[in-house]
Structures are given as C-alpha cells and as structure tokens.
Amino acid sequence: MTKETMTHDATPDVPPEPLQHDGVIQAEALFQGRRVLIIEFRGEHYQLRQTRSGKLILTK
C-alpha cells in the first residue's frame, strides 16, 4: 500500500453528530469550539451564545 493510498483510506476527524437518537443535541457538536452561533428560524436570525460561566443565551 502506498502512502497516497493510506492517506486516501484514512478516516478524517469527523465531529460528533449533533442530533442523537433520543432527540438530545450536544452543544459541543453544534458550537465546535465557537462561542456564538447564528440560527435561522422562519426567516429570522437568532444568536445562541455561550457565556463564560457555561450558560447559553438565545437572543433575536
């Protein structure tokens, strides 16, 4: 097997799936190291932000 083949066959680092089978969404999977997300819902944008104390704040 060549180095090129080994690189091609290697599994890339894939972030965890945000939606689990029981409907629980892991925040870490959504944020992926960021502190702020913009969520579009019915044509409106909302900001989901992590605070330094580990809480989540959703604002329009």
What does this molecule look like?
This protein has 60 residues and is an alpha+beta fold. The chain is built from 2 helices and 3 strands. The chain has helices at 3-9, 27-31; strands at 36-41, 44-50, 56-59. The chain has a 3-stranded antiparallel sheet with strand order 1-2-3, with no helix packed on it. The model is unreliable at 1-9 (pLDDT under 50).
Total number of helices: 2
- Distance from N terminus to C terminus (CA atoms, Å) equals 53 Å
Along the chain, the helix and strand elements come as: HHEEE
- State the helical fraction: 10-25%
- The Cα radius of gyration reads 17 Å
Task: Give the secondary structure arrangement, pairings included.
Layout: H1 3-9, H2 27-31, E1 36-41, E2 44-50, E3 56-59
Antiparallel strand pairs: 1-2, 2-3
Give descriptors for this structure:
globular, about 60 residues, alpha+beta, 3 strands, about 30% strand
Quick rundown:
This protein is of the alpha+beta class and 60 residues long. It has helices at residues 3-9, 27-31; strands at residues 36-41, 44-50, 56-59.
